[in-house]
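Hi C.,

You asked whether I'd gotten around to modeling the 130-residue construct. I have! Everything is below, sequence then structure, no commentary in between.
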Amino acid sequence: MIGQIFNAKEFTTKLKVTIQSTGKLGFTADTISQLQLTTDCSVLIAPDSDSKQILYLAVLRKQDETAFPVLKSGNYYYLNTKQLFDKLGFIYSNGTVIFDLSRFEEGDSQLGGDCYKMTMREKHKKNDNG
């Protein structure tokens, strides 16, 4: 008997978030869709106990006073996270810091929402000399 057919989009879509030069955490269109973000949602962010390159992000389906509200400008969804990233020592003002997201169901119950592991991506600027 044939089981469930895998949806290729689930395995080929790259989910990512970016710390903009303003300190806001911005979501790509694919990430907005996959996380089903709306302005009714809020987001918790937690550090990894072992690595400063990893954070956890949990999407809550309601507003929560301890979480960052999801904000929208045009088609762009973001979080006002400047003070958090300043406290964590991220240097983002001279460019962007990108995190790849992967589903982390083990964190759902602890954080109370759909949990994702945020792994910092190394960013290499292209050499202008060729």
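If it helps when you're writing up: The chain is about 20% helix and 35% strand.

Thanks,
B.
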